[in-house]
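Priority: medium. Attachment 1 of 2:
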């Protein structure tokens, strides 16, 4: 069972540990993240993805230089400054015309920006994950940022992408690549993983 004490061991000072722990535990049980190895990997990865369970919705408040580095084709230096520090405008361009989103002016980028502790992004992903959770996320995307749904959506994504089996054999870097597309933030992910394993008695 994932308790607030376990979460505090992994993320010292987590203000919402008492509220988050039962929701996280329920989501893990629902989607078969039900062994210490699976739970340790899940906690480590989702804690990293969500700023240690503080950000259940993507902010995107970037300065111009960061925009150009992250999305060089969408935010070349010639236009990046006009988008800087405007999260809604940034999202609408960054996520335009992909993942089922409409063009920049549709507003879909902001509407379907990353939410949940796995930062589910894009209209197609909201549409595919909603029915399995019993939620109409296309019509009500903010539901994904509510704590219970934030954990359930991540646990569902984890299970359907085969990450339980990888966690069983401690293939943590492979899990990271599936989630991230690379190894961004690996040092912090591995630090959280070590703490989670210790807290769960592994």
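Attachment 2 of 2:
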């Amino acid at each position: 069972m994932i308790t607030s004490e376990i979460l505090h061991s992994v993320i010292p000072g987590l203000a919402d540990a008492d509220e988050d722990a039962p929701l996280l535990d329920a989501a893990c049980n629902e989607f078969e993240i039900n062994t210490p190895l699976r739970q340790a990997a899940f906690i480590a990865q989702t804690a990293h993805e969500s700023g240690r369970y503080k950000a259940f919705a993507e902010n995107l408040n970037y300065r111009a230089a960061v925009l150009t580095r992250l999305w060089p084709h969408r935010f070349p230096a010639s236009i990046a400054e006009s988008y800087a520090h405007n999260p809604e405008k940034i999202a609408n361009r960054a996520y335009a015309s992909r993942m089922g989103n409409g063009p920049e002016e549709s507003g879909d980028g902001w509407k379907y920006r990353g939410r949940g502790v796995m930062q589910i992004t894009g209209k197609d992903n909201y549409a595919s994950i909603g029915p399995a959770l019993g939620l109409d996320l296309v019509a009500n995307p903010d539901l994904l940022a509510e704590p219970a749904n934030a954990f359930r959506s991540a646990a569902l994504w984890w299970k359907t992408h085969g990450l339980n089996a990888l966690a069983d054999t401690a293939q943590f870097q492979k899990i990271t690549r599936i989630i991230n597309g690379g190894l961004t933030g690996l040092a912090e992910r591995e630090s959280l993983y070590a703490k989670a394993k210790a807290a769960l008695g592994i």
